[in-house]
């Protein structure tokens, strides 16, 4: 009789214990996802420690302007980071890299992108255009979206902005420039869409 009771108790434990453990720790799939996330984070850390060379394409056609020549000290003095600027010839700003949308300004005049290599890019359409509170801008993506080079990001009414007296010069800034050895701007005067405007090097 004692052995029968032992078998019954053991059977009950075998049935109940997994249920309790699942309630506390979750299913195996969740654990697998956590491991995969941990592996991905570790890969990102490794990637950040490796050498890097990345080209940044032009988000729009136009005339290239060196950052120190932008008539706004926030940009010209490099307070937001190194980069370059374009006087846009068209109304559509496209992604200069593969990555993910990290930020969209409430006033729609600026957008942030993080590349898979850890480069943080800010595209600021026009100077003092935050004052427009989004009027004349149409955002075509959402925060968190995965995007590729050439993906349309923002359309803006260039003519309307200029008629209102706004400078439409568009700085493209590497906001985490300090993490890289060099951020080298192109020396071309006129730039076509998808031409390289910045070369980023990390040694």
Written account of the structure:
With 203 residues, the chain is of the alpha+beta class. The protein is built from 4 helices and 14 strands. The chain has helices spanning 2-25, 28-49, 73-76, 158-163, and strands at 52-57, 62-66, 82-88, 92-94, 99-104, 110-115, 120-124, 137-139, 146-147, 152-156, 170-174, 182-185, 190-191, 196-202. The relative contact order is 0.20. The model is unreliable at 19-47 (pLDDT under 50).
Provide the spatial order of strands within the biggest beta sheet.
9-5-6-7-11-3-2-13
Provide the helix percentage.
25-40%
Instruction: Give the beta-strand count.
Output: 14
- Helical region count? 4
Largest sheet: 8 strands, antiparallel
What's the end-to-end separation, in Å?
Answer: 75 Å
Shape: globular
In terms of structural class, how would the helical and strand content be classed? alpha+beta
Features:
alpha+beta, eight-stranded antiparallel beta sheet, globular
In short:
The chain is an alpha+beta fold and 203 residues long. It contains four helices and 14 strands.
Write the topology of this structure.
Elements: H1 2-25, H2 28-49, E1 52-57, E2 62-66, H3 73-76, E3 82-88, E4 92-94, E5 99-104, E6 110-115, E7 120-124, E8 137-139, E9 146-147, E10 152-156, H4 158-163, E11 170-174, E12 182-185, E13 190-191, E14 196-202
Antiparallel strand pairs: 1-14, 2-3, 2-13, 3-11, 4-10, 5-6, 5-9, 6-7, 7-11, 8-10, 12-14
């Amino acid at each position: 009789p004692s052995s029968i009771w032992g078998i019954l108790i053991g059977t009950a434990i075998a049935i109940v214990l997994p249920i309790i453990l699942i309630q506390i720790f979750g299913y195996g799939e969740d654990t697998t996802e956590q491991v995969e996330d941990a592996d991905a984070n570790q890969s990102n850390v490794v990637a950040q420690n490796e050498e890097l060379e990345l080209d940044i394409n032009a988000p729009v056609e136009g005339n290239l302007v060196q950052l120190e020549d932008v008539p706004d000290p926030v940009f010209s003095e490099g307070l937001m980071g190194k980069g370059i600027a374009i006087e846009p010839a068209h109304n559509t700003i496209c992604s200069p890299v593969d990555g993910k949308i990290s930020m969209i300004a409430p006033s729609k005049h600026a957008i942030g992108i993080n590349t898979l290599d850890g480069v943080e890019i800010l595209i600021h359409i026009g100077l003092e255009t935050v004052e427009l509170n989004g009027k004349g801008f149409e955002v075509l993506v959402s925060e968190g979206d995965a995007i590729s080079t050439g993906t349309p990001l923002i359309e803006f009414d260039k003519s309307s902005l200029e008629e209102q007296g706004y400078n439409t010069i568009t700085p493209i800034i590497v906001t985490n420039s300090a993490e890289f050895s060099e951020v080298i701007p192109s020396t071309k005067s006129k730039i076509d869409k998808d031409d390289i405007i910045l070369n980023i090097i990390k040694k």
